[in-house]
Amino acid sequence: MNYLSLTLNPNSLMIQEKKQQRILSEQTLPFSAFDFPKTVEVLASQIKEQFPTAQGSIFNDIPMEFYTEHAQVSRLNASRENLIKHFSELIGFPILTSSELASSSDLVAAFEEKTAYLTWNLDYFGYTPGKEEYSVESLLTIGNGFMGLRGTIPEMTLSKDHYPATYIAGLYNEEKSEVAGQIVENEDFVNTPNNQFISIRVDGTEEWLTLETATLHLLHRNLDLKTGLFTAHMIIEDTQKHQLKITAYKVVNMAKKNNYSIKYSIEPLNFSKDITIKTTTDGSVYNFNVERYRNLTAKHFHITQLQAQENNAVIQVQTNHSKIDIQQTSYITGNFFEANTIKNSIGDEIIEQEVTFTAEQNKRYTFEKHVQVKASIAEENWHEHLLPATSFDAEFEESKQAWETLWNKSDIQITGDLMSQKLLRIHTYHLLVSASPFNNNDLDVSVTARGLHGEAYRGHIFWDEIFILPFYILHFPQTAKQLLMYRYNRLGKAKENAKESHYEGAMYPWQSGLDGSEDTQKLHLNPLNGEWGEDHSILQRHVSLAIAYNVWMYWNNSGDDTFIKEYGAEMLLEIANFWRSAATFDETTQRYYIDKVMGPDEFHEAYPDSHESGLKNNAYTNLMVVWLFEELENILSLLNTQEKAELFTKTGITQEILKQMNDIRKRLSIEVNDEGIIAQYEGYFDLKEIDWEQAKEKYGNIYRMDRILKAEGQSPDDYKVSKQADTLMLFYNLNKEKIDEILEELGYDLPEDYLEKNLLYYLNRTSHGSTLSRIVHAQLAEEVAFHDLSWKLYQEALYSDYQDIQGGTTAEGIHTGVMAATIYVTLTTYAGIDIKKKHLTIQPNLPKNWTDMTFNIDHKGIHYQLTVGKHSVQILASQDTMVIVKNQSHQLTAHKETTINY
Predict the structure, then answer these.
(1) Of 279, 540, 712, 846, which sits with the fewest C-beta atoms within 10 Å of its C-beta?
(2) Which residues make beta-bridge pairs with 280?
(3) Hey, which residues does 88 pair with through a beta bridge?
(4) Which domain holds residue 842?
(5) Residue 515 CB partners (closer than 8 Å, separation 6+)
(6) Binding residues
(7) Percent of the chain as helix, strand, coil, to the nearest 5
(8) Residue 188 domain-assigned (yes or no)
(9) What are the pLDDT digits (tens) for 783-833?
(10) Active-site positions?
(11) Domain count, the chain
(12) Which residue range or ranges hold the Glycoside hydrolase family 65 C-terminal domain (predicted)?
């Protein structure tokens, strides 16, 4: 194999290309001022271009002269380890240190071992307080579906610099705030008490060790994706020059929903003195994660109990209006103190527990804190007496085994692309943190748009479920069913919502939280001009179609007829009845129309110069309504006569209503121009065009073109500009063959290449203000054989949270929708599986730099293990079945691996 030797000098990077010990070529890449990370990006780009056959590299020690020459370069943030990380990820191959090379007898094996490490680990070196730190904390979050802890170290407290938080699934509270001179009510995802804080004070100093006052020499945080273990290594120095080496481990037990543990080791490096270690149970915390929400009411609970005795502490709080009780019980142990030596102090909102001991230089002292978190919304174990954790190692081992079970079902293994492999594992990990089969199947919750990682969108449940649910449908069907039950349990509220808006049936809210009420805020802050404006996103009624689609997807993939008969058919029928009541017959056109809605685009809320919000005949909405009416007929055929009669009695549906649905299905209106472009909504073609090049030149980042236009005193309603896929979203949900059938039934005749035309038309008018936009367009681009475009958009979606491409949104929580969608597109577009048909169908279409991919899925009650390559598919099925590969049928024998060549 060819590999590189990289030597960073004060003003150049020297590169030797080697094969074994033989030097093939040498080159020096010069630079002047070293600007980290920009200079690394430039150098990495040059290396990729000039050494395309290299498969790994050695990074030699950095001479002290480099940092002397570039005094602006922080040794904390631009350490050798961080430089190696950036070079490795930008070039896409493993990089060894000179010491790693010296300890290895087999270079190829060493590179393979490093590659495996890189694809299973998330490493951050250094510390940049503020929004960048907030983003790191989101990506380092640990959790188990019931709770999530942001990836802070124990010494961090709530501030603009860093933000520790403990979130519990389904925990909401509503508060009033004054905004723009009026009182508004918002339901928020609650940040609960912080039990993670630990700090140190050395004898002879008055200060507790904090990042704000101390000197940080080293900070390395690691998240092991395979095991869910968070590790932080730190070397820190107080103002009296006392240096300490601190190692902190955190784990949220995946096997036990209520437990998390911290293992904290301290080692004095240059002194022997008394040390006091303090840990707190902090009930003074409040919501602070999202900057634009900080002027709103932020304290969502009050304390009902604080008590401490020896090594035990208890805090119980209750949310102010939702009246949910939360209890945290903690136990501390250590190898340098007894329980009766702990000094406990109880204040109004905080419990402080202190231990003082005599520490010897270079000796390690280990402290453990075990916390049990309970919430009254998780009724099953609220009153249950839980046994305390015995040790950190026992908790970690138990959790590690649970994680292994999850990875065995959900991991996607890719050969030939280090970073795509790493990012897909990051995305899978965060979905399992957000909802897990170990801890969610007895909870009445769904997956929030930002997981258990942050407070953006107030932790609400959106239509993002249409992107999220397929991950669980494919890998953990029981969890998918539980997530759908969250919606079924709020069907009554959806019917109330419809009635209040003068519709029939069930109209699910755009933003849902605790009880299924409409929780969309009425005002929205534009950060570009600091002004609050009306928010009309409540009109995105298509959220009900997303719920219907997920019900159908779950049933179609699982074959769970019992779910349909007991819950699913009722949901579909009530949602369909809502859309029937929303449709109006136009005598002039002899077609039905649906108005007063918004599509997925979100930039368009009304017609130009209109005083009323809402649009007419949104194509995505209307065609999905037709799809729903068609599928409802198939679903109802599963029910026998008595079951149908009971369902119709319960819902009030009559044969006349079903007949009207059937009529709407054949005569619902959309607008299509002569070239076969399907109008996003009626009247869209009359809007003005935007000069995109001028906008990019003026603003650079034009993702949120709506905010730019509003800040200039204009309106996106006047322009052909979209935030994300709208009309094109149809082709993400449904096979093109299905859409062709729908269009034909409606009487619309479009040219054969209408998909390509629509893709290019809307792609040229989309700003990608949502990270979801790229992945939807990536799938469509691949479908019409725009391979390079597909790969570009797919990579942007994969990196979107990891690189925080929207400039700070990751700080407010990861994007569960795009993370799930990248996994779905990897399986359905590139591996080519289709789960919408009776038999598993596979049309492999691997990217050119992938050799093969291995994964597991569940389909129709059968578990499949698959390896998809360039010219063959290997399949192992749990039952005798048939699959279709490259349009050819193949019989499979249970538990016998079959290789199908093509």
Answers:
(1) 712
(2) 352
(3) none
(4) 831-901
(5) 490, 493
(6) 463-464, 723-724
(7) 35, 25, 40
(8) no
(9) 999 999 999 999 999 999 999 998 899 999 999 999 999 999 999 999 999
(10) 602
(11) 4
(12) 837-885
